[in-house]
# Entry
Amino acid sequence: MLEIKQLEFAYAAEAASTMQFNLGVAAGEILSLIGPSGSGKSTLLNLIAGFLEPSAGQILLDGIAIETSSIASRPVSIVFQQHNLFPHLDLYTNVALGVDPSLRLSREQADAVATALDQLGLSDLQRRKPGELSGGQRQRVALARVLVRKRRILLLDEAFAALGPALRAELIEVVKKLVHDNNMAALLVSHQPRDALLASARTAFICAGKIVALEQTADLLDKSQLPQVRDYLGSV
Amino acid sequence: MVRLNSRAVAAGLVLALLALIVLAPIAGLLNLSGIPGYEPGDLRFWQSAYIRRVLFFSLWQALLSMLCSVLPAILVARAFALQGDFPLRGLLLRLFALPLVVPAVVAVMGVVSVYGSGGWISLGRSLYGINGILLAHVFFNLPLAVRLLLPQWQTIPPHHWQLGEQLSMNAWQRWRFLEWPALREALPGVMLLVFMLCLTSFAVVLTLGGGPKSTTLEVAIYQSLRFDFDPAQAVVLALLQLSICTLVAIVTLRLQRLPEVEIALDSVSTPIAVPQKRLNTLLILATGIFVGMPLLSMLIDALGGPLWQVIGTPRLWRSLVTTLFIGLFAALFSVGAGWLLLQYSASLSLAGKTSKAHLVDLAGSIVYVVPPLVIGSGLFVLLSPHVDVFTWVYPIVIAINAVMGLPFVIRSLGPALRQNHARYHYLCQSLALRGWNRFRYLEWPLLRRPLGLALALVAALAMGDLGVIALFGTPHSATLPLLIYQQLGAYMIPHATVTALLLLVLSLTVFWGLERVIGGKTGA
Amino acid sequence: MYKGLRFFGGTLLALLLSFAAQAATPTLVVYTYDSFTSEWGPGPQVKTAFEAQCACSLELVGLEDGVSMLNRLKLEGSNTRADLLLGIDTSLTAEARASGLFEAHRITMQKSSLPQPWQDDLFLPYDYGYFAFVYNKERLDNPPTSLRQLVTDEEGPTILIQDPRTSTPGLGLLLWIKKVFGDESDQAWARLSKRIVTVSKGWSEAYGLFLKGEADMVLSYTTSPAYHLIAEQDARFAAARFSEGHYQQIEVAGLVRSSQQKQLARDFLEFMLSDGFQSIIPTTNWMYPATLARTELPADFGKLIDPSPALLLSDELVASKRKSWVDDWLEVMSR
# Structure
């Protein structure tokens, strides 16, 4: 459903180096991206979201090219590791912004926000500010916003990196349900191979701006013979 | 908590010193009944309609000037922030440092050159009145406010800009959700500073005001102390001004909101697509022209004057060196004192005692409104029985200028220092990273830019000071501003404009130098 | 090592000798105003001339203006270093007298070019001037010929004046109008105010604005055109002669009671009245020297207007009434 075709991005810094990505993500699938720092995982997400412009290639959603669309019109939602929320606004408003930035919500939209908060277990907290919440709760709010936006593509840029293992596992389950129920195509960037195991059937390994391997998660993590992968994973 | 206590002690010492420098002279003046020929005036002057009128006018013109300076400054700073890097950006920001340096009397001439009857954009006689006052005040304070507000845009996390794009926020929404919250910490302080500057403005109001209808409290204080020789009345008026400012400060600083969550990595945050490019460019251009015109007219006047003759006089160079000396030392002491105060204030903030933190900031800032004339005269009274005041001129001038520079230090260094402290204090404690090492490895690299700005601001201010140095007669003309004033008073107006140009060049160089050397090479 | 010691010893000796030398030469400290001590003012020449004859060191301390000087003296009281005060004018002498800080000079003036005989035992005049409205001949064809005309002519020229609260010329105009109009001063000011472009803090601001063309006339001195004539070879400026006469400003010097160098100070006062000092005054202070005759002035001074009769209010009257007169003025001007 989501296809990245020969997507290229040239580094300004290093002349000879161009990143190139080719992959596809099916509807309802979470594809994990792992690899060393600086390899281009976040760059790929930024390209899909539109924060960066590719030098060549295409991004297709259901066959329609979106790489020339404006950021706002792309069917993308992104969750960062931090700074997803506006600290001076309460949770309800933070989520409502996902529906309409003018905050003028119709009856149905308001209900949708309430439902989303409810689904993520945040109804009691809706009048609180992000500063009063734990890291896990904050990421839930971000996910609630994703829920109300109903965009087809979900990008998670090390969204759970700051959370403990149990919490991470819990939120990954939430994401899986989200993605499944809404038929989204999701990309999850993480430094934890365990996240890939929990979230994805397939995982891609990105190194030096290229997708070096794209396999079943278990195969990649346990059986890959590629030196880069072995170096990265170390002794598991 | 040993750490908190030592900061508290340091800050306490600074505050005590401030109180000494400011309050002791006041007490000294009040104690003057022993002087022959002194008769206490009628202290029930607040029943006088004159004083009430003066008070009202002072506050009103200060408020109006502040609004006319700060509100546009927000838009201009925003324009600068959103435009990212463009040619002449650095130059324009340096230009904005100049109005601070120019002695008021020279600036008035510049404003008149541009807007007077013979000027480029003639307002004729309507210049002399509230129009002239506003023009001059905006000329002085808009650039300053822009420089103090601009860094706030750097505190907006890059992810917020990205989210803003994705959530399809328009410009107004971006302002409401991203930019305004980032300003909320710094803005009240900047407003207060500009208000104080306009309230205590003397030569501008008196000369461009058109007549006695435009009298401020400073003039009344000046009159009491100099012409009437009624120190008690002068002191009471000074205290009146001080208490009003304190009230205003308390109200303003209440509006100050610290960011709820500590944000922003140290990366430079630049927004993505900027739809209002043309409008912003226009705004920047217009501001550049507005600030540049009086400066340009000063330049033109100076170039038409006896340039080489003035440059050739050795006295000019002696004055230049003295000016430099006073400026740099005042900057050093001011930033040093400010640093200690701000460290304490930051630790209070971290401990959640925000109102106490605000009080410390307030104490550091509010001393600005005590007229140097009062401080100077009081110091005379206190010191002359014990010491030859003339040998102590430079230390006294440096000390008073350092005190006058404190509010600038607090505004420019305060927010960054507080954020830095909040982010790294616990880490430092766990690593036992203290004192010089902490400064060297943590605070210096991260706070260099605002430190540079603070030093540059105070140096510029002190170098352009006329009020303080004029009080303390020296056997030889000591500083460039004093030299300018002497030349003006001796029919040598062309010479004065040349000297003023040299002062501007010196200050610009020092400002740029300090920012570059201390602040590092990144763009503003 | 010995070389270093010798060098050090030599310097030390030199220092000691210089201290001894300084201790031998007495220093006379004179408080005066800034423009006096500046390098284009009378100060440097006065210093050279006096030190040549006195075997002493003359220290001129520049303090903003006459008012500051007096105030400084009052604040310092008997702890002051000053031996002489030079540069207050007759509007301040009563106050100065009342402070009790001055002592009788006990000097008789041999000659004087003042229009009226000098009768003050505490203060001696060194120069004087007259206030006048200065204008640019190319811009203004018919200047008013009397103060009354300036005040009453609705179509008259625009003027720049100074604030009597902060400036001596400003106060001078106030007293001038008081002398000419008496009880009708308030009405005079009311009528004049329509033509006042602005009231500036000091003389320099007003004069500077005038030179920029902001108004037709500026309150200054009859001798102002002399500066332009002599120093700039510019003949465009002139002072308007008023038929009622011009208000006079006489600048004086006084001996400070607490001085330790009274004999030297009196020597200076004698010197001040002598030709050696007086001849310096015209082209450095741009005022009329107190003891030189008109014929002994530079030629261009002859082109200046004749300001007689010289108007002056008694210093006692000024001292007692100044505050209330200024308050009245404020009242009128603030309407």
Observations:
- The first helix of chain B runs from residue 2 to 30.
- Residues 34-38, 261-268 of chain B have pLDDT under 50 and may be disordered.
- The CA atoms of residues 376 and 471 of chain B lie 7 Å apart.
- Chain B has one domain: 2-23+46-297+307-519.
